[in-house]
Write a structure and sequence with these properties.
single chain, about 650 residues, alpha/beta, 5-stranded parallel beta sheet, globular
């Protein structure tokens, strides 16, 4: 498969380029380094050729304070050592952004009520909670965990925790108590911050029983702090309002080493107990300043709204808006309540300048015929962010035609592993439908073939050949680092293999084809599952789909396509023929499925990724409990349905 040049759907103007923060950064670099940087590609090339120069320049450009002369003491992966001897705290950069002309956090509920939290209120309440944590004996390295929806209190609790040098970790309340314990219980936390419930889809979801079960499963807790949203009561819990009261407490951030743990995020848990992924203060700070200010051009004039949950790394990514003085938005409700275009409505009412969502949501809006630019005042919106899976070209074009041709679409791909993106948008680079505009600065991204050689214009494994500051400092409970090495460095020692299948085009853009461990391989010809989904899911009668390529014991290969239909619909022969014809003409005649099967749903991780590999193993004969922790699945009952499906 080779890449074909695709016409851009958005091209930056000379004014766009001149005003972009990344252009100012390039001038800053050129004044200090003997390097010509005429465009983004030249800046990217320099950033990966001279990692120390680039990340040192990021530090200096954002005026983060004194630093060591040595930026990168050891380039080995894993084990790269950044900024030896430097002491800092992530929260200090947030404090520096305090201002009086705009709120820090805007909270919205499904009923449309909006609550603003000023910078002074955010910082004073976070300082108040930090005081409470100190009184509870919380010290650097202790763990404070959250069981919370996407609400302002989650951000405040994180800031307070990080300011002390303690370690933050959280799960959204869509997780059961058991699923939360599988994650948070590994950390042996000393404080739990939890809400009594949330409203979603027009319903109240009471969580007192889950909070009590979670507390009972964490024997090392010194306190549980309850955020009251639905009037629930947890005996013995501290009240959040009192614990975070502003009594004039002053900030006194703990200065910690560059690689001191900031937070623990988790792998999906589809291959066993979720792995705790530990990131450090300094690496996250630098990576997120780069991602916010340089890649996304987000700054003090922006209202940054990414629909997310504390279970997902995009919650951490959105919190980074505070690092550059932006206003961030917290919304714990449904993206489709009360109407399918609810996110666009909220973006209009909040005058959001940057809105982040998923390909699934965009496709759902397209299928119901939504026209956001007609129905909502989106005049403030200047950037649309997309992640979670590959954005089909057709959905990107839909955004152009129905949201605004003047608005660039920044489709990004990265992961919890680096709590950022490997590739995505840049304000000085054109947007082409179905493609990520460019590798991120400082990311030595390549596509490698089976022999470990870089390829352009052809499909290969996504690898990163040089370290990034936000790569994990370790996995939790992995004292010898063996699990960490096995996760990323087993196939190519010293090179990060991410597990995605990509094409780096001749324009230096990136096409994501799906997970390489779920690659479809028919007659020796490989195809990414994302290519199938992009073709099939644009059909009006298809709600969702899942394609699996399963090797068989007899040496055969079975490739079924599961499709989810609208309620009450039946999979007819005519519909099967239409699906087959679409795949044959838009994707590949070699990858027409062996069977098309109507399914009740497509199981996903809690962050929205289709469970291709676990379902493949189930179709090959494994039981659901053998291949994954069902608490990591959004609809576990679906696994039993797939377990009953067998090759005819």
């Amino acid at each position: 498969m080779t890449s074909v040049t695709v016409a851009p759907q958005w091209v930056p103007t000379e004014q766009d380029i001149a005003q972009a923060r990344i252009t100012d950064f390039a001038r800053f670099v050129a004044a200090r380094h003997p390097v010509a940087l005429p465009d983004y590609r030249a800046l990217w090339q320099w950033s990966v050729d001279d990692l120390a120069g680039f990340w040192g320049a990021v530090w200096d450009y954002f005026a983060l304070g004194e630093r060591s002369a040595v930026v990168l003491a050891d380039t080995e992966m894993p084990g790269a050592r950044w900024f030896p001897g430097v002491r800092l705290n992530y929260v200090d950069q947030v404090i520096r952004q305090a201002r009086t002309d705009r709120p820090a956090i805007v909270s919205v509920d499904e009923g449309g009520a909006v609550t603003e939290l000023s910078w002074a209120e955010m910082l004073s309440r976070a300082a108040g909670f930090a005081r409470t944590l100190r009184e509870l004996g919380v010290r650097p390295g202790d763990r404070v965990v959250g069981y919370l929806p996407d609400i302002a209190e989650a951000v405040l609790a994180f800031l307070a925790t990080a300011s002390l040098g303690a370690v933050w970790s959280a799960c959204g309340q869509d997780y059961t108590a058991k699923a939360a314990l599988d994650r948070l219980g590994q950390l042996e936390p000393v404080v739990l911050v939890a809400a009594d419930g949330y409203r979603f889809g027009g319903k109240e979801h009471h969580k007192v029983a889950e909070v009590e079960a979670l507390r009972d499963g964490l024997p090392g807790l010194r306190a549980t702090v309850l955020v009251s949203r639905l009037g629930g009561v947890v005996d013995g819990a501290l009240d959040w309002a009192e614990a975070s009261a502003d009594d004039g407490a002053q900030w006194c951030t703990e200065q910690v080493a560059f690689d001191h743990p900031l937070w623990v995020l988790y792998s999906s848990g589809t291959t066993g107990l979720p792995k705790g992924i530990v990131h450090g203060h300094g690496g996250v700070l630098l990576e997120h300043l780069k991602a916010m200010a340089l890649q996304s051009d987000i700054g003090p004039d922006d209202t940054f709204f990414w629909y997310t949950s504390p279970s997902w790394m995009m919650w951490n990514f959105q919190a980074a808006g505070l690092l550059v003085g932006a206003t961030i938005v917290c919304y714990p409700g449904s993206p489709t309540a009360p109407n399918p275009d609810a996110l666009w409505d909220m973006a209009a009412r909040l005058r959001a300048t940057v809105l982040g969502t998923s390909p699934g949501y965009v496709l759902a809006c397209a299928k119901v015929g939504a026209v956001p630019q007609r129905d909502h005042d989106l005049s403030a919106l200047r950037l649309i962010g997309i992640t979670g899976s590959a954005l089909p070209a057709s959905s990107s074009i839909w955004l152009r035609d129905n949201v605004g041709a003047h608005i660039p679409v920044a489709s990004i791909s990265g992961g919890t592993d680096v709590v950022s993106a490997f590739a995505g948008g840049a304000p000085t680079v054109p947007v082409r439908p179905g493609e990520l505009s460019a590798p991120y600065l400082g990311v030595a991204l390549e596509a490698w073939d089976d022999q470990g050689r870089p390829v352009h214009g052809a499909v290969g494994e996504l690898v990163v050949t040089k370290p990034m500051p936000s790569m994990p400092i370790r996995f939790w409970n992995d004292p010898d680092g063996s699990r960490y090495r096995a996760a990323y460095f087993e196939d190519y020692p010293g090179v990060w293999r991410h597990g995605d299948w990509i094409t780096v085009t001749d324009q230096h853009s990136v096409i994501v084809h799906g997970r390489s461990d779920s690659t479809l391989n028919r007659h020796g010809i490989r195809m990414g599952s994302a290519d199938i989904y992009q073709a099939v899911e644009q059909l009006p009668d298809i709600v969702d789909s899942l394609v699996i390529g399963a090797e068989q014991p007899d040496g055969g290969y079975w490739m079924p396509l599961f499709v989810v239909l609208p309620t009450g619909a039946t999979l007819t022969d005519a519909m099967k023929s239409r699906i087959t014809a679409t795949i044959r003409t838009e994707v590949s005649p070699r990858h027409v499925p062996d069977e098309i099967i109507a399914a009740p749903g497509v199981p996903r991780t809690r962050t929205g990724k289709k469970l291709e590999v676990p379902i493949k193993r189930i179709l090959q004969g494994a039981t659901p409990s053998q291949v994954l922790d069902t608490s990591a699945v959004d609809h576990p009952a679906l696994l039993d349905w797939y377990a009953q499906v067998r090759r005819p």
